[in-house]
Structure formats: C-alpha cells, structure tokens
Amino acid sequence: MMPPEDDIDRIMAVMQAAFDPAYGEAWTRRQVEDALLVGRSHYRIAEVLGEPAGFTLSRHGFEEEELLLIAVSPDFRRRRIGEQLLQDCKADARLRGAKQLLLEMRSDNPAVHLYRRNGFVQIGTRKNYYRAPSGDRLDAITFACPL
C-alpha cells in the first residue's frame, strides 16, 4: 500500500537537503515509491514544528531488518533526531520480529559514530563500492546491531 502523497513529499524534501549530490546516494521519488510498495518496507518521518526533519526507510526480512536510508536535514542536525530515528527503527524492527538490524554505508560517512554509539558493529566490507566526488573508489561497510 502506497503511503500518503504528502509523506512521500516530506521524505523527498529531507532526501534532497540531506544527501550530498556529489556521491549520488539520494534516491529518486520513484525509487522511494517502489520500495514502499513492497509490503515489507517501512518508513518513519521525524518532524519539528510541523517541518520534516528526518526519516528512516527500512525493509523487513526473516528475523532481520535492513535500514535502507536514514537522513536528517542539515537544519535539524545535532539535535539527536538521527539518534531518535535510529532507536525508533530498532524498536519497530523488534516488533516485526527482527533479531538484528543491518545497514550499509560508505567508509568515510561521519554517521559511523552514531551507529557505533547505538550498538552497531562492522560485519563486512564491499571493496570500492562507492565513487567519491574525486573519482576515487570508497569501500562500503556493512554493520549489524543485535535487537
């Protein structure tokens, strides 16, 4: 079931503000809509005074959940919104029966501190998975957090 159109609008507003276009990591509206059409995909939007501040998008599988995207608009960073979204995602995943939460990120992503602080440990690496703005290749790091 497709979420309300205004929820997609809020997700996309955060997406456009939060992701550096030089890395090409932001999803298109169509990608978000397609992900949410799948019955196992879930999202949560954080708002501050009625404005979209952040969101998560995850996909549930047998006994695990994958955090596909987490983003906080630059105007709302350093207010623990990302931390709260991550905690909510973990709680929601537990309710769906997940025993662990997985995520993947590029190796130079400063959010690594948030993930480690919240119980995530590195379980794998994909060599040269991302392209940096300079053209260099960056590894993708896979993390897991027991629930």
Entry summary:
By secondary structure, this protein is α+β, with helices and mostly antiparallel strands. The chain is 30% helix and 38% strand. It has a domain at 5-103: Gcn5-related N-acetyltransferase (GNAT) (Aminopeptidase, 3-Layer(aba) Sandwich).
Describe the protein's architecture and organization.
The longest helix has 15 residues, at 81-95. It is built from four helices and six strands. By secondary structure, the chain is α+β, with helices and mostly antiparallel strands. The protein has a six-stranded mixed β-sheet with strand order 1-2-3-4-6-5, with helices on both faces. A hairpin with a 2-residue loop joins strand 1 and strand 2 (51-61). It has a domain at 5-103: Aminopeptidase. The model has no long low-confidence stretch (mean pLDDT 94). The two termini are 27 Å apart.
Which features characterize this protein?
147 residues; alpha+beta; Aminopeptidase; 6-stranded mixed sheet; 6 strands
The CATH homologous superfamily of the domain at 5-103: Gcn5-related N-acetyltransferase (GNAT)
Write the CATH architecture name of the domain at 5-103: 3-Layer(aba) Sandwich
What is the overall number of helices? 4
Overall 3D shape: globular
Main sheet attributes: strand count, strand direction, barrel closure: 6 strands, mixed
- CA radius of gyration is 15 Å
Distance between the termini: 27 Å
Would you give the CATH topology of the domain at 5-103?
Answer: Aminopeptidase
Q: What is the top-level CATH class of the domain at 5-103?
A: Alpha Beta
Which range best describes the helical content: under 10%, 10-25%, 25-40%, 40-55%, 55-70% or over 70%? 25-40%
How are the strands of the largest sheet arranged? 1-2-3-4-6-5
Structure summary, number of beta strands? 6
The helix-strand sequence is HHEEEHEHEE
Structural class: alpha+beta
> Low-confidence runs (pLDDT<50, min 5 residues)?
none
Average predicted local confidence, pLDDT: 94
Strand content: 35-45%
